[in-house]
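Comment thread on ticket #2218

A.B. wrote:
> Attaching the input chain for the structure job we discussed in standup.
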Amino acid sequence: MKTKIKDTAFLETGAFLLSKFGNEVCGDTIMTRRIKEENRYVAVLSDGLGSGIRANVLSSLTASMALNFTLRHEPVRRTAETIMQTLPVDNRRNISYSTFTIIDIDFSGEAVIVEYDNPRLMIIRDNEAYYPNREPFFVQGTGGEKKLWQSAWVLKPDDRLIVVSDGVIQSGIGGQLTPFGWEEDGFKGYVLALLENQPDISARDLAKKIVLRSKANDHLEPKDDISAMVFYYRQPRRMLICSGPPYDNGRDSQLASSVSDFQGIKVICGGTTAQIISRELNRPVSVTLSSPQPGVPPQASMAGVDLITEGILTLGKLGETLESGAFDEIPAHSPVALMSKYILDSDIIEFIVGTRINQAHQDPALPVELEIRRNIIKRIARILEEKYLKEVVIHYL
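C.D. wrote:
> Ran it. Output below, let me know if you need it in another format.
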C-alpha cells in the first residue's frame, strides 16, 4: 500500500449511470482501472444497443475486452479489430451492438483516446470547451469495415475530460424546447455554466449532475440509458486518518505533531488516540452524546481536527460502506457518512496506524468482526485503491 506521494497534479475520476425508464439494468457500462506500477489509468465507456439486460451484457463484454487489451499494451487497432470481430451486428441497420470510448492516460496527463460511435469526448480548459483533433482509422468487423477515431491530448492542471453516452446528447428529444434532443451545444452550454458557478466541483458530482440534468430533459423518465464519465486533473486533495496509540509512549508527541502539521482533512479514530493528541496539543475534546447511526458510537470534536470517531467499530462500518457503496443507506450526519464524504472528496489518503495493542480488543468473547486495527485499515486501503482509484499511504507508528 505504500507509495510515494506526489506534489504534482492528480487525476480524479468520477462516473454516474442511470437506466432507461422502466428498466432495472443499465445498458451502458463504465470500467476504470488505475495501474500504480505504470503510472496510468485506463477507462472505458460502452453503450449497448437498445437497453436492458441484453444491452448490458454486450456493453460489459465490450468494456471488459477494451480494458484488458489496453492494460496489456495491445496496439489500439488490434484491440478495436478484436472487439469488432467479436460483437454481433444488428442485421437490419448493419451496426454493431455496442459503441465504446477508450481512454489511456498517464499521471503526467498524456491521454490517448479511441472512439467508436459515442458522442465526441469534450475537454474543458480555462472555461472553454475543446474537442481533440481526431484521426480516422478503419477496421474489419463482422458487419464489414468500421470507422473509428483516435486522438491524443495532454492535460494541464484544472482541465476536465468528459465522456457521455448518447442518452445525454439525445435527452429531451421531441420536446418543445429540444425537438432534436439536448444535442452537443446544449450539453456543452450546461457544463460551462455549471463550472462557472461551481469551479471546484468534483469529477463525481459533475458526472452525476450531467446525468440527472439529462433525466430532467426527459421529464424524469429517461428514454435511453444515460451515463457520464469525468476526469479532473488538479492539485491533489489530502486526508489523514489517524488510529491507534504509538507502540512506544515516547512517540506520542510525534503522533500529535503529525496531526497538527498535516495540510488537509484530519480524522482521528479511537478514544485513546484522541486523548493522546488532546494531551500533547493541549486541546480539549468535546463528545457528542448521541449517534444518528445504530451500532456506531457518537462522534467528538477538537480544535484543528475535522472529525473524531470511535476506533474499531467505526472503521469496520466504514469498510463495509465503502465496499458496498451504499452511502444512501446510512444517516447523513453519522460518523461513517462524514468519513465517507471526506474520503470521496479526497485524492490522497494517509493513515497513521498506532501499533500498541489495545487490551479491550483481545477478549475472545468479543464478536469476530472486531478485527485487529491494522487488518481493518489494510482492507479499507485496498478498497480505496481498487474501487475508488485513490492513492493510499500507510505509516505505522
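A.B. wrote:
> Thanks. Noting for the ticket: DSSP finds ten helices and 20 strands in the chain.
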